[in-house]
Every structure is written in structure tokens, then in C-alpha cells.
Amino acid sequence: MHVSFEEAQHIIESAVTKSKELGVKMCIAVLDSGGNIKAFARMDDAWVGSSDIAIKKAKTACYFAMPSGEIGKLSLPGSPLYGIEHSNDGLITFPGGVPIVDKEGNLIGAVGVSGDTVENDHIVAVAGATKCGQCDMPKHPWRT
Amino acid sequence: MHVSFEEAQHIIESAVTKSKELGVKMCIAVLDSGGNIKAFARMDDAWVGSSDIAIKKAKTACYFAMPSGEIGKLSLPGSPLYGIEHSNDGLITFPGGVPIVDKEGNLIGAVGVSGDTVENDHIVAVAGATKCGQCDMPKHPWRT
Amino acid sequence: MHVSFEEAQHIIESAVTKSKELGVKMCIAVLDSGGNIKAFARMDDAWVGSSDIAIKKAKTACYFAMPSGEIGKLSLPGSPLYGIEHSNDGLITFPGGVPIVDKEGNLIGAVGVSGDTVENDHIVAVAGATKCGQCDMPKHPWRT
Amino acid sequence: MHVSFEEAQHIIESAVTKSKELGVKMCIAVLDSGGNIKAFARMDDAWVGSSDIAIKKAKTACYFAMPSGEIGKLSLPGSPLYGIEHSNDGLITFPGGVPIVDKEGNLIGAVGVSGDTVENDHIVAVAGATKCGQCDMPKHPWRT
């Protein structure tokens, strides 16, 4: 199952609302469980370069069914996944991308946010994703 | 000046409303005048492959300040611009992309739509763009 | 031998002067004989999308040591080089790119112009290139 | 508003003059505020590989409205933005790229320089950019 268009719109709204609360300017991407773009928004005065980062964070979270920052813990020099960012036409492995998981534990999409500190990016992504599901995958199985 | 986030949202809404009237499933992209993505929506059951086409149609309309289909008239085999699609990391030169022009004749962005016949794609793009401007560039000048 | 920086600047100036005479807005690229960018100019109100086309026309003229439009005659459907535009990360095979050749018949670079009709693009490219050489290669040999 | 062609030419001239003072061979790129190329120069004997670096430094400064080296401080292993270079078709995050900001605090473009030490690259970029504006963004707002 994929996140629906209506859900994707709610995710964007929820992320924008949270961004305004925090006083930050964000780019927000919603992808379906196949990693394909469903909805996107760049708020006024958000960095132009954050658009691609938001999309790639969401792709990273979707492709590996975990928050982008979790991959980042494993991709440092000397760590097992060093250089994984070179795969899949570019991953972004710092925080701000989270999976969207339904009640049965199925991955239904991902949200990626970029525009402020990685802590705020993550907070806004979670605010968006939890509008339509949870961000934690069960240990196994997960299905796209 | 660029299309604002609020305007981009109105463009998406207007294009979605028109799509529903026509009973079609569309991907809709809004770019600023620099060709950078501002907002995007993929309606449920729209082709996944239409996302990139919508973005590239909008890019084509933005980069040349005219509807994408106008370029297409010139890019057929034997025509002056044959093969222009190979430039700019890929252009799409059939209808569905239109520029957004403000009252002073400045290009402020572009809308690209893909998902149905090129006639319907164009109709939906115009319905979106005219929410915030017109689609016709003055002869000259135009400024990005 | 390569076109020098001073020569490249003269080529740009000469092409801009010719563009103003014609009342057109151009993108102008100068590449060395290795196909690497040496100088570039986008005049005000020139299409943003013409930048890449100008560079690719020059690349096409440089890589094959002939005007870009000559390749275009051979790349139409059913012709021997159909689809050559897919090579070399994208060629542009309509007029506007010309080689720069020194007195000994050596290729020293190429000029690419985009922004108006292909006829005007070619005229401006020749106006630039002939500032520092000729546009015709001897039958053979040619050396980069 | 974007940097104009005349301004871009002055930026190139100013950067070339400073390069000659320092006795260095540089590649210099000027982009508009949308990240699209406006003018470019590669001085004689500058590294061919520096052309793309100059363009990517300018893109980095433009997309994030700050000097490229500022991003580099945050993208080291273990730092919050580790791996950001994989976004936007490649960023360059060492010094040599600076934004161009007008008196009202609007981003109007960026300059990227590559060819010598990163310190000299930065000095030459600033010499270029300050010909037409300042390099410091106000805290907020900034608009492209």
C-alpha cells in the first residue's frame, strides 16, 4: 500500500504548520513506498539546495525503511556502510528523512525535510509522517 | 520575482480541481523562474512515470518562456530544433508545460502537467498557471 | 594548440557585438580543442535553456571538427548517424556550433551559440570563431 | 533580481585582475540567483578540472546563500551535514564560492573560483563578488 494523495497533502500541511511553529523555512518531500515522489513543497525563503536534499532524505528512509540518520551512523569512515551515499543516484544520510509505517507494520512511504538544523529537520519530518502513520518499522517483516 | 509558496499551492489546487472535473489523474509540478521546484503533486492512480515528465515539461516551459508544445513543433525530424530534447538533462517538448507570467510581462515560474492526453495535460496546466498569472509572454522584454 | 583566454574573450566580444547588431539575445560558449569550457556568456534576456544548448553545440563541433549542423544532416531518422545525439552525454546537432581552426589546419577550439533562429545562431558563432581562425577544417589530417 | 550580464562581466574582470595580482591561474564562474550560469572564464594554464569545481562552488554558495566553505565546516565525518556533497548533482564544500547579495539583502547570484589554494580561491571570489554587491547575507529575510 502507498500513502494516498490526500494523506500526502495532510503530511505537507502538518509539516508546514510545525515549521511555522518553529519559525523555520523548509523543503518537504513525500514519497510513496516505491520511492517515487507523491508531493513536495518548498516554503518561501527555504534554501533552493534543500529541495534535492529533502527528496534524497526521503528516498534514503524509504529504500532502507529506517530514518536517514540511522544509515548515517553506519556510513562514517571505517564503519560498515562507508560510502553508501554513492548508491541509488545519491543518498543523504543525516537526519530529516523518516519512513511512514501503517498499523500492520507495512512501509507506505517516507517523508524528507531539509532547511534548518538536522534536529529541526527531523522534528518536522516526524510531525508530517505521524499524521498518517508511525515512523518505526517492526523488526521484520516489512513489505513495500 | 518568483512564484510564492502560497501561489504555488493555489496553482496545485486549481489544477487538481480541473483534473477532477475532467476525470483525469495528473502529476502537477510548479517551478520558480530559475527552474527550481517549488511544489509538486501526484494524484492517486496517476502514472508514476508522469512525475518526471511533468517536471521536465515545466522546465522546458520555464527555460524557453513558452509552452512546451511550441518547442515540440520545431523539434521534429527535419525541423530546425530536431533533438533539442537532449539538452538541459532532458526536455519534454509535447504539450502540458506553460510559463507563468506576471502583469509586467516577467516570467515568474512554470507549470508542468502529465497524466492524460496532451490536450488535457495542457488544459490542466493552463488552469493552474492562470490562477496566478497569464501564460503568454510579451514579445519582449522578458526577464527571469 | 588551444584557443587562448585572450582569444576566447575576443570571440565572446565579437559574438556579442554581432548579436547586438542583429538585435538578438544569445548564449555563447567557447571550448578548447579538448572540448573543455574556456569562456561563456549569457546575455540579458537570453533563454536560460540556451546555455546548455550553446555548450553542447560547441562540444558537437569540437568533437567532430565540423559545424554542428553538418552532423544534423546525418542524424535524421534513416540516416547513417541516427541517434548520435545520445552519445557524449548529449550532442546538439542543429546549426550554431562551429570549429575554430588555425592557419595550419589544426583544430584549436569551438564556438557554440544559442538564443534565436538556428540561422542567426550560426551567423553569430561564425562571427565569433573567425575572430581567431577559420571555421573550415582541411580534408585531413586534423589534430587536436 | 538577477546579476546582469554587464555585472557578470565586471565580476569576471575583477576576479581576473585579482588573480594576476596574486600570480595565480583561475577558473571563475558567475551564476544567477536560480543557480544558472551567466558567465565563465578559464585563464590560460588553469587546471581543466577546476572549471567544474568553480561552477559547483558557485552553485553551493547560491543554493545555500552562504560561502561554500561554511557548508564544508558542517560536512566533515561526524558533523551534522556529512555527505551533503552527494545532493544537487554534486556540491563542492571547500572555500571559493560566495553569494552575491544586493543592498536590500537579496541574493542575486554567486561566484565560484577554483585554481589555486582554497584561501586564494576565496580571495578571488570575494574580489569578484564585491564588485557588484556584498557576500554576507542578512540573518533574514533573503529571497531568490
Q: Could you walk me through the main structural features you see in this protein, from its secondary elements to its overall organization?
A:
Four copies of one chain form a homotetramer. Chain A has a single domain, classed as 2-Layer Sandwich (Beta-Lactamase). A four-stranded antiparallel beta sheet of chain A has the order 2-1-4-3. Chain A is globular and about 40 Å long. In chain A, helix 1 (5-22) packs antiparallel against helix 4. Helices cover 36% and strands 17% of the residues of chain A. With 144 residues, the first copy, chain A, is α+β, with helices and mostly antiparallel strands. Chains in contact: A-B, A-D, B-C, B-D, C-D.
